[in-house]
Amino acid sequence: MSVLAQIQQRGDIIVALSVVSILGVMILPVPPFVLDILLSFSISLSIVILVSAVYIRKPLDLSVFPSILLMTTLYRLALNIASTRLVLLKGNEGIDAAGEVIKAFGSFVVGGNYAVGFIIFLILVVINFVVITKGSGRIAEVAARFVLDAMPGKQMAIDADLNAGLINEAEARKRRSAVAQEADFYGAMDGASKFVRGDAIAGLMITGINIVAGFAIGTLQQGMPLAEAARNYTILTIGDGLVAQIPALLISTAAGMVVSRAGSPRGARPSSRDSRWSSHTVTFHANGLPSGMYVCALDANEYHARMKMILLK
């Protein structure tokens, strides 16, 4: 038996080791280069989850998604704790005290203007919390309610098909299992969406604490000048917040795509038969509209000049 097959069969051990590792990241001090690796893995994992959510055909194809949401949320919170420890303990050493990833995100976004960097971070938090997380949570809540309400009707329809001889006992058992799995999935997604929303709130609070506490520690304990303390801790805090919020934004988007996939059995890829996008007339007019508006804008001055000449005549 191959190593990959053995790993797939012992998935419970992998989950247990992952939880223990996450707790270790929370408790033990993490060197900056290790934190860079963990943060890079967090971003890569969120991209993989988003791409997987795009290409599934139905929500049950990714039935472990609620557990993935919980584990990734716990993982990001552990990274927040580890990065906060580095920022507050070693922020006086410079903007590379918490690793190159946080330094790169903070320096690139701030760009010499701390107010602009903080505003961009707040915009990302608002988009994640108010728009995506709240919307996907509401979709999961409504979907769970409707799936549970429709469950008795689906069970009776399966029994009716079985009694009429349209399906055999094995097919009926398979359909009942699918109905139960669907109800369990949407119920779990309804609960898991609360973790994502709490993660967004915790990220905003951690960022505020980092800025205030870092500035106080730098000026009062370390004796840093005010300008240097503001520069170091602002860049580190904004970089830390962005590294945490970007994966959260991607995973929240993936959660919204998964729970909104109920009415689309083919997934995110539209079929040429039932999609109105396949109409050549619709596509032609949609593609021609921007170019037509551009031409009209170019000819506006000439049109007004001709109308003025006609009126003067």
Keyword list:
313 residues; mainly alpha; 2 domains
3D structure, described in words:
With 313 residues, this protein is mostly helical. The chain folds into two domains: 3-269, no CATH class; 279-313, no CATH class. Helix content is 81%, strand content 0%. The chain contains ten helices and no strands. It has helices at 3-9, 11-27, 32-55, 65-90, 100-110, 114-163, 169-221, 226-259, 280-298, 300-312. The radius of gyration is 27 Å and the shape is elongated.
Return the structural class: mainly alpha
Show unreliable segments.
263-279, 281-300
Biggest beta sheet attributes: none
Mean pLDDT: 75
- N- and C-termini, Cα separation: 93 Å
Domain unit count: 2
H/E element order: HHHHHHHHHH
Anisotropy-based shape: elongated
Counting DSSP H or I runs of 4 or more residues, the number of helices is 10
**What's the total count of β strands?**
0
Strand content: under 5%
Helix content: over 70%
Topology:
Layout: H1 3-9, H2 11-27, H3 32-55, H4 65-90, H5 100-110, H6 114-163, H7 169-221, H8 226-259, H9 280-298, H10 300-312
Helix pairs in contact: 2-4, 3-4, 3-8, 4-7, 4-8, 5-8, 6-7, 6-8, 7-8
